[in-house]
Each structure stands twice: as C-alpha cells, then as structure tokens.
Amino acid sequence: MKQALFLLTFLLVFSSAKSQDLAHFADSIRVKSEIPELSYAALTADSVLIKNTLGFRRSDLQNAETKANANDYFHLGSNTKAITGFIAGYLVENKKISWTTKFFTLFPEWKKDANPAFYEITLLDLLSHRAHVKPYNSGVEFQSLPKFTGTKAEQRRLFVKYLIENDALEKNNETYNYSNAGYSVATTMLEKASGKTWEQLLDEVLSKKLHLNYKLEWPNRTDVNQPWGHWIENNKLTPLSPHTDYNLNLIEPAGDISMPIADYIKFVQMNLAGLRGKNNLIKPETYNFLHYGLKDYAIGWLNVNKPDNHSSEHAGSAGTFYCYTLINKDKNVAYIIMANSATEDTLKGIFKLLEKLIKTVETKI
To answer: Which residues contact 225 (CB under 8 A, 6 or more apart)?
Structure first.
C-alpha cells in the first residue's frame, strides 16, 4: 500500500513541468559533456517513473534523420555480464549445470595440456572473477593472441583453450580480479552443459522467453541508422564507423550486447522484482545469489550488502558507448543512464545526471 501511494504521489507531483526541467538539465549535461546521444531512466520493480532519450545518433551529422529515438539501441558493454549471469542462473535452476561445476568436469580432454592453476576452477569462480584468468580488458592483450578462425562460438572455444593452457594471474589479496576472458571460459561451460551456442542461448532466453529486443555488437553494424559509438581521434570526438576493424567476438558474453532502453529497463525490473521476492523466469533466491552471493562482486553485479544498505551496480564500456546501472533493493528503485560516447567528460556528465535523478526520485520516497 505504501509503495502504491508513493507511485501515485510521485506521478501527481512529478508534473509535466518538472519532467521538462529534468529533460532540460539532462540535455544541458549532454551538450556540455559532448555526448551525442543520451538515454536515461528511473524505475521501480513494476513501474517506469522516468524515461527519456535526447540528442543525435552521430556527432558529425545532426539533423531530423539522425535525431535520437526512444527505440535506439545502446551498447551495454560490461552490463552484458549480468545477462550472462542471468542465463547461467536459468540453466542452474533447470539443472543443466551447477555453480560448483568444475571446468574440467566438462572438458576432461583439455586437462593434460592445461595450467595446473586452473584445475579446480568452477562456474562460480569464473563468473565472480575469482578464477585468476587474465583480464583481457584492453586491446593490447588481444594483439598478442594467435589468429582464431571459424564461427564466433568456435573462435571463443579456441580462445578458451589457449587461456587455460597459458599463464594465470598471480595470487593476490584482492577480493576479485576482474576478467572479461573469464566470462568467455564460463560461457564455454554453459554451451557444453546446454548443448547450445551462446547465440542460441540468448535467442532462447532473451528473445523467446522474455521477448526482449537486442543486437550483438555495435548498433550501427547491422543498421547505420542506429547510434554510432564515439571516441577521441586527433583530440576530437569522432564517430566509430561500422566498418572499423574493432570487434569483441572473443569476449562477447562479457560485453557485447546492445539494447533499446525500454528493453533494458524490463531486464533491470525483473532483477529488482526478484530481489524483492517476486518470481519471474528465475527465482528470488537466484536473483539474490546473482547480486549478493559473494562479497563486493557476485555474478555480473558489484554490490553493497549491509543490513541497512543493499545496492548493486555495474558500468559498461568498450570505449565508444557507456552504460551505468544502479539498483537500490531497499528503496525499490533503479537507475539507468546510457550514452554513445565514453570520454572522461561523458562520465562526469553521466554521474551529475545520476545525482539529479536520485535527488528527484528519492526525495519523494
């Protein structure tokens, strides 16, 4: 009842004038921070409080045809990890695999050539960045790799074999060691356990079961009229052509899904609802494990897990887009901000907008 009253009050108080004020503030941030296109939302488990998309899909071509659209796709970057974790949770609930399944239980034939440091790694170790797999968080690391051929799934499989045969990260005192490559290893386990490729799993879960729209890779790779990512070239913000030789095929499950904000909102809402005890495709206890099962970083989510503060968040960027997600379980509210640039100024602008969103929404709670 209290939540329902809050929503009613919020919708009454958050008038058209206030909505316009927020849009004006967001657009001023967008312009000042040189963000070509910006999308943001605030939501509860069952209601969208705020949603808006502003700007232009390309910095170098700003007209009616390139104006921002609510259905535009944004690259999620490492927010993809939460989707990979969700699919893992779905497979665990369906008894295809368990969190404690060891990699070499599924791939015993690879053990003889593997680094002994990886003998005992499990699905949970990999998805929580505790398997000591080298990170592959920058382009430099990929430049030293051999050339892998075949389909995306075949290339990832060869990449994983290469990873487990070579050096591990040295043991250290960190709670976790962030690794994009670890998610590729985990996904190879999910593929073997389910008998389906990563792409088939995405289609089964995101498309067929959840009815969510998504694309793999940069949005403009399949449609040049979708948002272009931007990076700095010659000290100038420059749109990334769809033909640029830059792909994330080997670490696709770690950071290469794009979605319109409305679809990503639905995914985040499912997580928030699950954290607050509601069943949907997976169970509340699975959501709680994904978000809070381990200290600091569970499965696809960084977390604060204290008696009076339960929140989870993630940021994602492959250098040309930026996506930030924050979930406040206790207050039943979440925030999403997406941009098609990832410069230092972009990040400053995004977190100024986040402060404004939180102040606007949470003062009403």
So the answer is: 57, 65, 66
- Reply yes or no on whether the pLDDT at 344 is more than 70: yes
In three-state secondary structure terms, 167 is: coil
The answer on pLDDT for 95 being more than 90 is yes
- Per the domain annotation, does 179 fall within a domain? yes
Say yes or no: 225 and 193 in one domain.
no
Length of the chain: 365
pLDDT in tens, 207-223: 999 999 999 999 999 99
CATH number, domain containing residue 230: 3.40.710.10
* pLDDT range class, residue 139, cuts 50, 70, 90: confident
Q: Range of 158's domain? A: 82-200
Q: Is residue 206 part of a domain?
A: no
Of 174, 200, 226, the last residue of a domain is 200
pLDDT of residue 11: 54
- Taking residues 296-303, report their average pLDDT: 98
List Cα–Cα distances, 87 to 47, 52, 147, 246, in angstroms: 24, 28, 29, 26
Q: Which of 302, 311, 328 is nearest to 44 (CA)?
A: 328
Instruction: Please tell me whether residues 221 and 260 are part of one structural domain.
Output: yes
Query: Is 123 a member of any domain?
Result: yes
pLDDT digits (tens, 9 = 90+) for 325-334: 999 999 999 9
Task: Tell me which residue has tokens 């230092």.
Answer: 344
- Phi/psi for 48 (5° steps) reads -100, 115
What does the block give as tokens for 79? 């927010």
Q: Helices marked H in the chain — which ranges? A: 2-13, 16-32, 80-93, 103-106, 123-127, 139-143, 152-165, 180-194, 198-202, 252-255, 261-275, 284-292, 344-362
